[in-house]
Amino acid sequence: REGRDFRFDIRPLIRNGDKIIFSPVVVYELSIMWESGIFDFYLPYEYGLDNLRTALMKWKTECEKQMEKDIEIVFKDMGYITRRNLQLHKLDKKYGHPSDLGDYDVLAVDEVNKVVWNIESKFLNKVGSLREYYNHQDSFFIRNKKDEKFSRRITYLESNVTPILHALGIIDCKNYSVKNYMVTNKVFYADIKKVNFDIVSFCELKQLINKFC
Question: Whole-model pTM?
Answer without folding.
Answer: 0.84
